Predict the structure.
Amino acid sequence: MKRQIPLLITFLSAITMIVFYFLNEDLTKDYKSGIFDWVRIIGSFALLIGIVNLLRVHFYKIRRGGKEAVYSYVLVLSFFIITVSGLIGYGKRGAEGIVGASFLTFDWMFINVLRPLQGTMFSLLAFYVASAAFRSFRAKTKEATFLLVSAFIVMLGRVPVGTMIWDRIPVISNWIMTYPTAGAQTAIMIGAALGAVSVSLKIIIGIERTYLGGDE
Amino acid sequence: MLNYLKTLDRRIIYLFVLVGVILPIVGGFLFPVQSSPMTDSVVKALKELEPGSVILVSADFDPGSQAELQPMLLALLKYCFENEINVVSMGLWPMGPTLIDNAMDSDKVRISKDRAEQLMLEGRKVYIIPKGEAGTEQYLEERDGKIVVVKETEREEVGDLFDDAIYYVKGIRSLFPEGHIKYGENYLAAGYQVGAGVVILDLVASVPGALKTDALNSKPVESYPIMNGIDTLKDIDMVFTLSSGSGGIKEWVIYGNGRSGVKVCGGVTAVSAPEFLPYLVSRQLAGMLAGLAGAAEFEAATGYEMGEGIRGMTPQSFAHIIIILFIIIGNLVFLVEKYSENK
Amino acid sequence: MKKFSLLFVCFLLFSLPAVTAFGAGEIDEGVSGKIFETTRIPVLIGILLLGGAIVYFIEKAKKGQHIFIRKIAGLNAIDDALGRATEMGKPVLFVPGIMGIENLETLASVSILGHIAKKTAAFETDLKVPVRDALVFSTAQEVIKESYLASGRPDAFNDNMVEFVTSEQFGYVAGVNGYMVREKPAANFLLGCFYAESLLLAETGNSIGAIQVAGTANPSQIPFFITACDYTLIGEELYAAGAYLSDDAKAKGSLKGQDMGKAIVMGLIGFFTVLVIFFQLASMGKSYEEFQKGKEAKPSETESAITKVHNFFRNSLNF
């Protein structure tokens, strides 16, 4: 019974949405709107589960102690500072926009702490791309050579230097992106989409039960 | 030497990339930026919008992707308000709407000296970073026909604006006269919407039903004049999504354009741009800006010459050249080694 | 479950005549048009074909027919990777992607996790699974617990194997990279849905000398995994992994059905490509004729048929 009920809910929900898809939009608009509201409410509660889980894990690490406990302290402290400031200080907005972003308000922390930190993490990609490209772009085979030449053309074509070297580079770069690249991407997308349809069908009819946690 | 190059420490590569990116920023030189067909399609789609059209701007990204997407957002908002296109903003990612708020009111928007003077006379707050100075925020004031630089409590009178200083305002709103952007009339913030694809399906059925209330006053969105005549997503003239991952451009194309036929344009990070090329080729996407290069091209095409995108193209060019040089070095080492082995 | 499958197939089979029979039916005055969206018939045909193929091959596999699956190098390397980790006395790191349990790639990844967990239980190798989503956390814990139980080693399981790092994308990457640099796992499995963090994870794993098996259906991240990882599962190879590793007849049957679906799609693409080329050549010919004779030529019988088919599918695919 523990497994049968979720499987039945999955099956009925899926069939309902499939049937709605083939019915006139006007007939199903209100029902769909109701269902979507429920999905959004459940999605919001899933955020809450994540928060509770995060705090539970880190409170455990603080209780246990050890050299990594200090990071848990930082996390828990930051969590409460941002939450409280968001509840109290978020309201400093008017019809003319953000009125004030003083120290430790939500806006101040967002602009001066969160944005630089997240931007920094993303910027690591630039360095990692350089080292990955140096290590792996070798003209070992004909295909690899083609890849190498295309990579050079596209890299130059996407920046002003390409036009300065030869004004045809951006044109060739655009052709490479529009035809071979788009074609290959489409093929992978179609394959992945068919795989997704198959997995979805297996979930609907109950063959795939990983989401319930383990096999029967 | 060969062995050293073969086992080159990756930190040497990082150092070269770092220097390559910093040099042009410090040197201050700019490469001219030309548009590309992808960006032209976006500009063409925007130019087809008449004054009074409504565009739904969806910020589906977080601060991690701000380097590439925030310049697009700034240029887009500037273009829309200059051309009297009404903007309804929302986000499918939690931090997206806050980034739009920042674009409207906090982000530094660089302007030329002439524009700085013009805005100052209009009563807008214009900030200045004189050459060789940094640190404390300084802004300009006009007192009895004289220009004054205000720095905390100090006030320094200057004869005329400096040619070599950096001038900026905070937020796109400051580029326009007071009252040009009226909340509820030509701008509305709907805030973060939970549910990604489900939100879009909801919008297809009913925009007021999906958005419900606005983020500022928590009033029903249909009570604002900007939403007059907007019932379903079909009534929106264009959706412009700035997207960096799941719950973004793909869902807008599949559900938004697929179900309602609404015109969808997008701005994406360079890393994910090839993934959406098939949609562009099949015209499910009306146009796409790809990465910082796309942002720069869009800024150039819409007359935003001081934008972050354009200024970012020179460091990016240097970085690309450095990467190409290292690839060439790696291949030379490989070929020399192969030749030695064959010998 | 057999009843559900039969129910579903019956529903699909009877819905097509129902749609066509009632397609033009009128309803209340206040509501416009028909009951069924007849423009979506091609979608229904597609579902029937693909779903039918999958169900058919599942039934065939259950009856004992051997289903051949080609070798997938990445999946064959799992045992080698685990063996290496065991010999070196280092842990195994499994990253199930950054999306939630509702994402199909994550589901596929978690099913592979079950197999890997069985092996780590048998080899007594440490397993670490950092996750970004709360529901994935619960599911992964359950899957590992059951795998260890199935391997006869429930004592070896501990709750700390699965760790919820953070729901913030780059915070998660920083956490996982930190773990990699500190603990230096010998084998990394990066399987699931990844975005910009894919190269950050793969490069860090490469820098510590771990053997890496990666897999994602996200086309834009595949190149990064190919450059930085030893083995990469591309696109639907990730979805096939569950069937490949489990030797389950139903899973293999569904894989075969999926391949049939792909063959049908390829056939349709080829057919319509030829059709479009033919149609365009015919249109071109008509224009040239017009120009030459100075009068509008009548469309031929063949051209009208082609035009009708072309317009039907063009209109109906705008669903």
The mean pLDDT of chain A is 84. The CA atoms of residues 50 and 56 of chain A lie 10 Å apart. Chain A touches chain C through 61 residues (CB under 8 Å). Strands of chain A lie at 93-94, 97-98.
